[in-house]
Specification:
This protein has 279 residues and is mainly alpha-helical. It has 11 helices and no strands. α5 packs across α6.
Length: 279
Amino acid sequence: MEPRSRSFYVLAAFFTLFVVFLYGPVITIGILSFQGPKGGLTFPMNGVSIHWFYDLFEQQAVGDIWGSFRRSFALGLMVMSVTVVLSVMGGMAFRRKFRGSSVLFYLIIASLIVPSILVSLGVGLIFNILDMEVHWATSGFGSQLTWTLPFGLLIMFAVFNRFDKSYEEAARDLGASPWQTVRHVVLPIIAPMLIGVALFGFTLSYDEFARTLLTAGSYNTLPLEIFGMTTNVTSPVLYALGTLTTVFSFFIIGTFLTIVVVMRKRQASGGSDAGSGLV
């Protein structure tokens, strides 16, 4: 085995530092959330317990943790559903050139370039000018779509660029209508990618702060609630909340990835069964 060069160790050390920088804060908060009942917000730890996780489920002196969690979860599901539907529709529309398609594409992507706080301010001002209530389910929902839709569309552009049109042509040759072709051919093939779009939509919405700051109205979402708690909560219960939300995020990601794996296995087994049937 040839000895590794010095550049390998330099790059390995750099990558290790990058991982520590990326996950160090999360790991630190996770450790501090297991402080003892008399523990504080910093090291050294004063005992080890799950006291602050129990305390998290009790009535807090400030804030509405579980109400804000329900709002964030509901908002994430709303954003996810609309993002998937509009991304598929937009991806299929852009498969054919139409007048103004390039301009429309750049307008969509431009929302990723504009600072999030300006988007939040703009949406909030529009609702105020129209004398409409600023609420997390309306203005907050709209401002978050400006964040999730471009990502969903970019994913669908990549999917349809690699999509084999011969499947659609075969379906049409067999007498399928355009809707039947989409429903029975296109959607089953791109279904695993739609799970990825859904994952992007939910996770980006669930922890979005800046675009919700000025559009949530009187009721906070979970990121806003956590930010508010940093100014008046002086116990590790805040770390316990951060640990639980992180675990929940990883659980959602793992669930979506499991669904993708199961769908791919079913597609592969379906293809092999069809092949054996032809033989």
